[in-house]
Amino acid sequence: MQRIIIATAAALVLAAPASAQESARERIAEEYPELELVYVSRVNIGAPLTIGETARGNRRLIPITGGSFEGPEMRGEVLPMGWDWQLDRGDGCTQIIADYFLRTDDGAVINIVNAGTLCPPDADGNPRPARTSPVFEPPLGKYEWLGQGGFIGTIGFDPAASEPHVVITVYRAK
């Protein structure tokens, strides 16, 4: 549906006079922001701690044990402190809320709370994208821009990896 809307908007832009085309392009850019890579991280995880069945679903805690991240404007390590608080819901999806810390190669410590939902493949067996909404609390200064924008994350898994981890890629909406 979103592709149809974008294609229709693009056709209208091309048919309009030049001044109207620029205005339409600005509106499209506002509604459908571009994404800019912030970093790719490899987050190491420990063995899950099963909390058990709760009124909301089955609960578990996944320790975050370290890792690394790198992007165009920042790089460093994932500190070995933090957790991913997971809830298996009745619809088969898992709600995640991870709270952990990055330390940049120049010493800044940045807190991240990253929430999302992971769902099983659809009825046709097609995988569903795993998206998150990271929120950063950086120190004032060089990295304060992280606390001033909108971000989206993707989660990937590498079953062939030698140690358990997830790959989280974070993008900033421009």
UniProtKB/TrEMBL annotation:
It comes from the Bacteria. Residues 1-20 form the signal peptide. InterPro entries: UPF0311 (IPR020915). The keyword ATP-binding does not apply. Keywords: Signal. Belongs to the UPF0311 family. This is UPF0311 protein E5222_08330.
